[in-house]
Amino acid sequence: xxxxxxxxxxxxxxxxxxxxxxxxxxxxxxxxxxxxxxxxxxxxxxxxxxxxxxxxxxxxxxxxxxxxxxxxxxxxxxxxxxxxxxxxxxxxxxxxxxxxxxxxxxxxxxxxxxxxxxxxxxxxxxxxxxxxxxxxxxxxxxxxxxxxxxxxxxxxxxxxxxxxxxxxxxxxxxxxxxx
Length: 179
Fold this sequence. Notes:
By secondary structure, this protein is α+β, with helices and mostly antiparallel strands. It has helices at 11-22, 37-40, 62-72, 83-105, 108-113, 119-139, 153-161; strands spanning 2-6, 27-31, 50-52, 58-60, 168-170, 176-178.
C-alpha cells in the first residue's frame, strides 16, 4: 500500500491526496513536517509531500508523485487520452503554478501575521496574477462541471492549488485577495 508523507495544510500534499482518492488507490498517511534526519531518508531535500510506493521506493516532488500514480494506476486517468489535449492540460497546470500559486504564496506571511504588504510586493503579485488570469481566460472554458465528468488533471489543479481561495478578504494594503 502507498504511504503519503506530509501534512494536510500543504497544498502540494492535498494535490497528491486528491489524486489518490480520485483514482481510488488505497493509501495510508504518515504525518511528517520534514526537515528531520529520518524524513531525509524518504525525501532527500526534506520537502513535503512524499510517497512510498508498494515496492518501498520513495518519491518526492508533487508533480513526480502524480506522474508516478498516473503511470502505475492508469485505470482512472488524470489526463485526456489525446496528446494535444494532454499537453494543453499540462500547460494550464504550469500557468496555474507559476502565475497563480507561486505569487500568492508571497502574501501568506502577511496574511498570517496581519501585517501590511509592501507596495512593491503587492504590485508585483498583482501584475503576475493578472498575467496568469488572462492566460487562463484565454486557454480555459469555465463552466459548472463535476470532477468525475471532466477527467483532466490540468483543469482540477488550479482549484486545488488555491483551495483557500473560497475565503475572500481585503488586506490592510487595500489589495483584495483570495488567499
